[in-house]
């Protein structure tokens, strides 16, 4: 406990004493968020016994939640680096160690809500019904007409790079900033803006150098209401600002009716239920959505909801019909999606081969329907929370998904980005027993922080501003990107475009924390595969190993509690990290033990739901086995992580024949006089991708499982050979080995040249 460096953080509004609210060990940034989210960071004191052995990551991989393969290629040219961010409430590098958290409550002042409306609807029935609803909750509510703001002196310009937008009323926006400052001085907690961007402008239009570089035009001009929330420009919001982006009284009345339904639900004191949707949005074998699902436990979300329904790529239940049905009709309180967005829809990646894979909608504006009880939606999906298209014409056909969900009574609030936000991955790899671990520090962390805060707060607005302050205070979220248009802090970009569409003063259901730890063990793995081989593009930011078993050994996964659902999938890759196929090979329910044996091999993933916990393990099983006097080779895709090139089959140290490229399994009749059989690719591309001396050492476990010692020699008949190609069970290739060996080699060389050409073409 007392080893390492002791760091003390004291918030600016922390009193002389506070109540101890947490004492324990945290191992990750996500766990620290789970401890702190929901508290006002300015009223917190933290004593952190930091371990000296923990180093900082100085590299990160960049993603966006916009579905564009072209963007993926452009992002590879941007290299984010951590910056020395030091604000008034900056938390310095809390990554691993023992922590004590004290909280000084600011008192139970009566909550105050200001509603800013255009003059022409100030006396409309829905507005005054909105006032009545909140007064019934004990909230002090006042309605302000837009004309009343005109008497305020314009504030200074916000201290960020501003974009020039035709017809944007900058003077009015700066007057509203001054009005917001008046509200904070008068003790207001919430500001609800009723109106679109043409009527009540955003507090600023921020110009993003990064978005201007990689996508440009409309996407780089970011509307933000943040400076209404932070009128003193210290980057710490004091006022929880939400916006209903329409003034149509019919739509407003529908929203008020939905609010009544929501309040009725909250007053029943039901513990909230969560819908989680996330697969592999980045076409990445780290399955980013499922990696986030795993860390809902670290974020202290799992234990604060009554149930979580998971829709993931490995479970195989992500599609337009299933997700739309769940969002529209499922019994949920919160919906958290880790997918792409294009303004009008949630989109995920569907692997179907190198050229057949594509991004597809799983929920769209056309699918939105009224719910009996509306939900709160949180998502890093790009553009879906855009709301300013009445002022600045959008790149998609309005309305946005968020606006549609509010207008139709599907959502009481939508929290997400108004443009293209960024995900930052600072490390990836495996924990104990191959548990997939991804350290995410970008947009997903922001919205996960808001979700955790919502499960710890009385109102949505309290959760919103506390989460924004916490996210921006963390040193780990600040990465700088240098572009031809200038440098940019990506934490700032994610913060400014974060949008709360809906009423910030809505009450939240009460929750109670509970713990439900799940222990996982894997038996039968004689070897392990370094994460450096599995994720070579992240070579300098990987950690851990993936369990590996030879084909003659069963892999047994044991869970400490029965899983409601468990699947084992074989995944197929291209250029190591590009996901091109998922094949379910085993499925069961209410079990504590999964046995992987027989001819099941290759790169495997196990997904299980245990209570509210999501488990995601990466395993590998491969090698050589004898079946009916034939040699069975399984898991060739593991042997050739980087390539689809042919593999050499060596008998007694000499080339015997060739396994054609692209196959995942292969069968031949055992060769005559064989005592030792080995299978190797002609080139280990890992040696070219990472440090050669290290690669040779890391490859040894893989070489061992692809070597078979038969002992005594025997004579075997030469027959036809067959193999399994790609991820289709129906495709098999048959070739004659001996008589056509020379022709085969020539054919394969030509084939590989064509594949290389296609690879280069796809990347160009």
Offer a concise description of the structure.
The protein is an alpha+beta fold and 764 residues long.
Write the layout of secondary structure elements.
Layout lengths: L4 E6 L8 E8 L2 H8 L7 E7 L10 E4 L4 H7 L5 E2 L14 E7 L8 E6 L7 H12 L3 E6 L24 H16 L4 E5 L9 E4 L1 H6 L6 E4 L1 H4 L10 E5 L4 H19 L5 E5 L10 H7 L12 E5 L8 H10 L4 E4 L2 E2 L3 E6 L7 E7 L10 E4 L22 H7 L3 E7 L4 E9 L5 E5 L2 H12 L5 H14 L5 E5 L2 E4 H8 E5 L17 E4 L3 E4 H4 L7 E2 L1 E6 L4 E9 L1 E10 L3 E11 L2 E6 L5 E9 L2 E15 L2 E5 L1 H4 L7 E5 L2 E6 L3 E7 L6 E6 L3 H5 L2 H7 L1 H6 L1 E3 L11 E5 L6 E4 L5 H23 L1
Helix pairs in contact: 1-11, 3-7, 11-12
Structure write-up:
Mean pLDDT is 88; it is low at 713-764. Strands 27, 29, 31, 32, 34, 35, 36, 39, 42 and 43 form a 10-stranded mixed sheet that branches. This protein has a 6-stranded mixed sheet with strand order 14-13-15-19-20-25, sandwiched between helices. The chain has a 4-stranded antiparallel sheet with strand order 1-3-6-2, with helices on one face. It is of the alpha+beta class and 764 residues long. Helix 3 (125-136) runs parallel beside helix 7 (249-267) and helix 11 packs across helix 12 (460-473). The longest helix has 23 residues, at 741-763. Helix 10 (401-407) links the parallel strand 19 and strand 20. It has 5 domains: 1-81 and 92-105, no CATH class; 209-502, 3-Layer(aba) Sandwich (Rossmann fold); 520-620, Sandwich (Immunoglobulin-like); 624-719; 733-763. It has 19 helices and 43 strands.
């Amino acid at each position: 406990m007392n080893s390492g460096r002791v760091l003390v953080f004291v918030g600016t509004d922390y009193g002389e004493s506070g109540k101890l609210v947490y004492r324990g060990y945290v191992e990750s940034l996500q766990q620290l968020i789970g401890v702190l989210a929901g508290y006002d960071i300015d009223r917190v004191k933290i004593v952190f016994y930091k371990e000296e052995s923990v180093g900082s990551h100085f590299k990160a991989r960049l993603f966006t939640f916009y579905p564009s393969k072209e963007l993926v290629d452009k992002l590879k040219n941007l290299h984010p680096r951590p910056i020395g961010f030091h604000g008034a409430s900056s938390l310095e590098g809390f990554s691993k160690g023992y922590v004590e958290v004290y909280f000084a409550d600011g008192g139970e002042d009566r909550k105050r809500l200001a509603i800013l409306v255009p003059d022409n609807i100030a006396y409309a029935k829905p507005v005054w019904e909105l006032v009545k609803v909140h007064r019934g909750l004990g909230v002090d509510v006042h309605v302000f007409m837009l004309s009343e703001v005109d008497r305020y002196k314009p504030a200074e310009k916000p201290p960020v790079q501003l974009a020039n937008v035709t017809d944007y009323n900058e003077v009015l926006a700066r007057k509203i900033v001054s009005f917001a400052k008046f509200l904070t001085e008068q003790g207001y907690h919430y500001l609800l803006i009723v109106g679109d961007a043409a009527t009540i402008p955003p507090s600023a239009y921020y110009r993003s150098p990064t978005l201007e570089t990689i996508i440009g035009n409309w996407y780089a001009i970011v509307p933000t209401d943040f400076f209404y929330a932070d009128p003193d420009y210290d980057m710490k919001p004091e006022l929880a600002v939400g916006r209903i982006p329409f003034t149509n009284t019919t739509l407003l009345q529908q929203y008020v009716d939905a609010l009544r339904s929501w309040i009725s639900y909250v007053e029943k004191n039901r513990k909230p239920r969560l819908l989680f949707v996330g697969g592999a949005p980045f076409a990445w074998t780290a399955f980013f959505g499922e990696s986030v699902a795993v860390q809902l436990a670290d974020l202290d979300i799992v234990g604060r909801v009554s149930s979580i329904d998971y829709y993931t790529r490995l479970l195989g239940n992500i599609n337009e019909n299933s997700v739309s049905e769940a969002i529209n009709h499922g019994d949920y309180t919160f919906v958290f999606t880790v997918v792409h967005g294009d303004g009008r829809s949630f989109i995920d990646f569907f692997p179907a081969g190198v050229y057949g894979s594509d991004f597809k909608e799983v929920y769209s504006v056309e699918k939105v329907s009224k719910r009996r009880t509306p939900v709160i939606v949180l998502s890093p999906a790009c553009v879906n929370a855009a709301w300013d298209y009445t002022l600045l014409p959008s790149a998609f056909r309005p309305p946005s998904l968020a606006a549609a969900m509010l207008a139709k009574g599907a959502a009481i609030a939508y929290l997400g980005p108004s443009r293209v936000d960024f995900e930052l991955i600072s490390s990836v790899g495996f924990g104990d027993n191959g548990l997939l671990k991804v350290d995410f520090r970008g947009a997903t962390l922001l919205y996960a922080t808001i979700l955790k805060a919502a499960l710890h707060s009385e109102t949505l607005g309290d959760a919103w501003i506390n989460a924004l302050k916490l996210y921006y205070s963390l040193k780990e979220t600040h990465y700088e990107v240098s572009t031809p248009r200038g440098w940019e802090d990506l934490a700032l970009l994610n913060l400014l475009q974060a949008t709360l569409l809906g009423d910030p003063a809505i009450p939240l259901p009460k929750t109670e924390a509970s713990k439900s730890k799940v222990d996982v063990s894997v038996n039968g793995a004689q070897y392990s595969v370094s994460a450096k081989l599995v994720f070579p593009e992240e070579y300098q930011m990987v950690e851990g190993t993936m369990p590996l078993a030879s084909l003659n050994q069963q892999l047994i996964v044991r869970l400490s509690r029965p899983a409601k659902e468990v699947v084992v999938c074989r995944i197929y890759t291209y250029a190591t990290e590009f996901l091109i196929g998922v094949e379910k090979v085993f499925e069961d329910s209410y079990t504590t033990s999964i046995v992987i044996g027989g001819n099941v091999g290759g790169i495997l993933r196990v997904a299980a739901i245990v209570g509210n916990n999501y488990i995601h393990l990466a395993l590998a099983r491969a090698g050589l086995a004898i079946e009916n006097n034939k040699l069975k080779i399984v898991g060739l895709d593991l042997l050739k992580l980087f390539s689809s090139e042919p593999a050499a089959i060596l008998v007694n140290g000499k080339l015997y024949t060739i396994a054609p490229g692209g196959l995942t399994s292969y069968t031949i009749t055992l060769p005559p006089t064989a005592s030792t059989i080995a299978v190797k690719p002609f080139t280990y591309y890992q040696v070219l991708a990472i440090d050669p001396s290290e690669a040779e050492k890391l490859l040894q476990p893989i070489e061992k499982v692809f070597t078979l010692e038969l002992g005594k020699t025997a004579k075997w008949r030469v027959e036809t050979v067959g193999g399994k190609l790609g991820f289709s069970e129906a495709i098999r290739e048959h070739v004659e080995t001996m008589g056509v060996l020379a022709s085969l080699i020539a054919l394969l060389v030509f084939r590989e040249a064509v594949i290389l050409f296609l690879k280069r073409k796809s990347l160009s």
